[in-house]
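To whoever is covering the structure queue this week,

Two jobs came back overnight. Logging them here so there's a record in the thread.

Job A:
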Amino acid sequence: MDQPRDSLIHVGDLHFWQFVINPFRLLNKRFLGNLNVLFRPTRQYAIEMAEPFAESLAATGIKQVLLTGDFTSTSTDAEFEMARSFVDRLASHGMDITLL
């Protein structure tokens, strides 16, 4: 049987998070996101698994990756930096990344 010429992996809802303590940074929806991180532990994603997950994706040999939101929980700069670091790790494995 012929192998497919192109393959794609779709990954969504990464939800990198960092608990926000500064009350001045808890404006608007960020306050609700912080409450979700604090009171709904089942919605917390194991950030420490990002690197092993990147390695697992690379091990599949598939080069096309579609990443869709949510990338963060409270939209802090630190969370976006974590998400960017994850994307950069995938790209360093030779993957072609598309963000949506």
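Job B:
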Amino acid sequence: MAEAGNPNSSKPVLVTGATGYIGGRLVPRLIERGYRVRCLVRSPRKLEARPWAQSERVEIVEGDLSEPEGLAEAITGCGVGFYLVHSMLAAGDDFADRDRRLAKNFATAAGEAGLEQIVYLGGLGEMGPELSEHLRSRREVEHVLAGGGVPVTTLRAAVILGSGSASFEVLRYLVERLPVMVTPRWVRTECQPIAVRDVLGYLTGVIGRPEAVGRSFDIGGPEVHEYLELMRLMQRALKLPRRLILPVPILTPKLSAYWIHLVTPISSRIARPLAEGMRNRVVARENDIRGIVPQELIPAERAIELALARVEAQDVETIWSAAGVIEGDPDWAGGTVYEDITEIEIDADAHSVFRAVQRVGGGHGWYALDWLWQIRGWMDRLVGGPGLRRGRRDPETVGYGEALDFWRVVEFEQDRRLGLRAEMKVPGEALLRFDVTPKDDGGGSILKQTALFRPKGLLGLAYWYAVLPLHGPVFRGMTRGICRAAEKLAAESQPDQSQHDEARPADA
């Protein structure tokens, strides 16, 4: 095994889950420390928008842990492997079974490839009959990974506080939106939250350390809090009036999940295992990791402030909604496909038009009739869909695989095409596509906006014809709004020369 603290002479570090919340932050930290990194990902296109993906120290390899053939070859040559895969975002209720299968495939391949150390980020929680299925699954993955013959270093964390994390988003939205909260009894459960940057410090710190190999460690911040106290810390950080919180015994995890789904961006599918896990006390039983990887731990209040500052600055590095399986584009062959096409000529270059297109959704809105989009978002939340509250990671740019309100980016060609697949609850498959083409005479661009819908059954047909009258004001209004924004952006990119000259002394 490579000597700890000497990364430049070590083998590449393997990272699975690089498209996820923790993995997407871990890779650039490894690069900063001098490591070479190999990212094993199901969909390499999801990394195209990450600045670090272009680093000469990064190698991106396509691979699917659910398909064991070829995994060992993809891992061969690496020394340490990070296992940061979790199936809670996958469709269906069998995430625990899927997690076991994926972990077994990885453990087998790691053994065949001669990997020297596996580092796994698991979950805190005492084993026993009361342990939630979510936390029990994390613990089972530890044992499965160890079964492949490669020594495993497990770091068990509870609530991770960082901009864009699921736990942070639940906490923030509950406090922001509800001056009075009727909550389950779990608000009195103790937990030991940890700042995301401290998690990354521990993950990078155990690489190649003999005293960490083959051991499990509980990791947490410097303080233990009840969830109620975390809500109070969030309230103060947001500078909001004191919230009235009323714990009651009647809210089951299922009801709690629906409540979280309606109030926060988190779907009920993800909220339920989170709510079930909150019933368990998740506090570190030992602090051995602090002697192996010493670092100044960030208190929860400061971690919340740092995360909110990132949100305010629109500088969120990774976000929970970008993780998970990204299905392919709908197969439009066969069946009846309805389409609505709008074209408009815009007096702006293709780059400016595409910049305006990329701004759709999130804080910018949808350029026209935002109140209708808000109503549609609320309707979607009520029936279990993501709604508009999921927002977007960055207000100006998007990348393949990212969530954008209740859409998912499934096509992305810079300055040419943006394709969004609907993840809202609809009786069919829907795609919204924007194509930008420079005019032949060089005097501007043409924006073509296409809405495609393949209905499922009579309900799908009824849905299409019910919303068809709204397409005119919504989609035509959207293209006109994009036109105005693009022409403004084009004008701003070519400032008057006199203004440029006046600004030069100040800029210098």
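Note for Job B: The longest helix spans residues 457-492.

Please reply-all if you pick these up so we don't duplicate work.
Q.
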